[in-house]
Design brief:
By secondary structure, this protein is mainly alpha-helical. Among the domains are: 47-161 and 169-190, Serine Threonine Protein Phosphatase 5, Tetratricopeptide repeat; 369-420, no CATH class. Helices cover 74% and strands 2% of the residues. The protein has a two-stranded antiparallel ribbon. Helix 6 (144-158) packs antiparallel against helix 7 (173-187), helix 10 runs parallel beside helix 13 (287-306) and helix 19 packs antiparallel against helix 20 (407-420).
Length: 421
């Protein structure tokens, strides 16, 4: 800046020397020179603002990369608890960033260490790792191949590809239900006909077998997955019945066998679902969990028999988020579990989730607040701001005036107080 100011000063001195011998400088020339000077200052200010924006963006990128690296390092050397926390942080980071290059980078950078951690990690950490892989693929996956790649890694958690010197470890119920839920969550994003049938031909039989397990969470996860497979019309892909014919007569026989196989498999699954929808409570069963199972399988049964999907409405602020398909219901349930108490806030402010569910929240923001910058808003909402002090004084005055008045009148003032909070 010192060099620039010096150059500008020298230029000004040169201009004065040139005009010393002439006394006929018009006022219009002077005015034009002033305007050019002002424009120059404005351009300098724009340049400064642009440089500041670039610097802040670079700083943000650095923080994003540093946070991701720290979390990924936890997969290699961290305790099970640290791995769980790191997994959740990476998932939240992806959801917060939404679609874009950063989300894609999170997926590509995280996939190798995540895959390895799922093979060697403890049972307690695998659930968080599965959820993390599901979220970052859901947000950052660009094509079906990336999504199916993650689904394959999930499936191998309960169906590992074993070498001759490796002994299979039976996965626990919570790990199985977490895998099926995460796998189903990603299946909601897939066009059924883009799936590789060779990879999934045994999965329908496996999901059917899970309906007979003792673990209620496993049964519920399997029921949702089966409903989704029926909804996206991929029963043939998952049944193992579709095979390429060699000639016309073989094609007819193949179609007949396929039809009978699918019909028999569907009948078996419907029978299982019907039994679970009316299951009686056994010794030690939790009534709430039993009711959840019955309600879920009644919805699945109704869908299998009549084609009706459950309709769900969730209150978000002043609006309602509504779903009317198994695909959206599975997405909603998975994200609610992952975000926990932060779900409502994310649904109010996260544009990525607005796009996922086609949801537009009702925002109670005044026109004045719309015009404030982010820094002004922080000052505006600070407990020490002039406005908040004025609100406090007003509320104190209202409380004093309310003393001795009847309860009904006090209730009205109470409503006014809430409007200020």
């Amino acid at each position: 800046m010192g060099k620039r100011n010096s150059q500008r000063k020298n230029a000004a001195m040169l201009d004065s020397d040139e005009f010393d011998d002439s006394s006929s400088v018009s006022s219009s020339s002077t005015s034009r020179s002033d305007r050019m000077s002002v424009m120059g200052n404005e351009e300098m200010q724009v340049d400064k603002d642009s440089l500041l924006d670039q610097a802040l963006e670079a700083l943000y990128e650095k923080r994003f990369v540093t946070l991701l690296e720290r979390c990924l390092n936890s997969f290699k050397r961290g305790s099970p608890k640290e791995i769980c926390l790191a997994s959740h942080a990476i998932g939240l980071l992806a959801l917060t960033l939404g679609f874009g290059d950063n989300a894609q980078e999170i997926l590509e950078e995280s996939f190798p260490p995540l895959s390895q951690a799922l093979k060697s990690g403890s049972e307690s950490s695998k659930i968080s790792l599965l959820e993390c892989l599901a979220i970052i693929t859901f947000v950052g996956g660009n094509d079906p191949e990336q999504t199916e790649r993650s689904m394959q890694v999930m499936w191998q958690v309960v169906h590992p590809k074993l070498s001759s010197n490796v002994v299979a470890v039976k996965p626990s119920g919570p790990v199985i239900s977490a895998m099926v839920s995460a796998w189903s969550f990603l299946l909601t994003t897939m066009d059924g006909w883009k799936l590789n049938p060779k990879d999934w031909q045994e999965s329908l039989s496996y999901l059917s077998s899970l309906l007979d397990k003792d673990d209620r969470a496993v049964r519920i996860a399997a029921g949702e997955a089966l409903a989704l497979i029926f909804e996206i019309g991929s029963l043939e892909k998952f049944s193992g019945a579709a095979k390429g014919p060699s000639d016309a007569s073989t094609e007819e026989r193949s179609k007949a066998r396929e039809y009978m196989h699918i019909r028999g498999l569907k009948a078996k699954i419907i029978s299982q679902v019907r039994n679970l929808s009316a299951e009686a409570g056994g010794k030690g069963s939790v009534k709430k969990d039993l009711n959840n199972q019955r309600n879920l399988f009644r919805d699945v049964l109704e869908y299998f028999e009549d084609g009706y999907c459950p309709e769900v409405s969730v209150k978000i602020g002043g609006g309602s988020l509504e779903t009317s398909s198994w695909s959206k219901l599975i997405q909603l349930n998975f994200l609610k579990r992952f975000l926990g108490g932060g779900f409502v806030k994310h649904m109010q402010e996260n544009e990525f989730l607005h796009d996922v569910f086609g949801f537009t929240p009702k925002k109670y923001v005044t026109d004045h607040e719309h015009r404030l910058s982010s820094s002004e808003k922080r000052m505006h909402r600070s407990p020490n701001s002039f406005l908040n002090k004025a609100r406090t004084q007003h509320l104190n005055k209202q409380r004093m005036l309310s003393e001795g008045k009847n309860i009904g009148h006090f209730a009205v003032n109470g409503g006014d107080e809430e409007a200020y909070c």
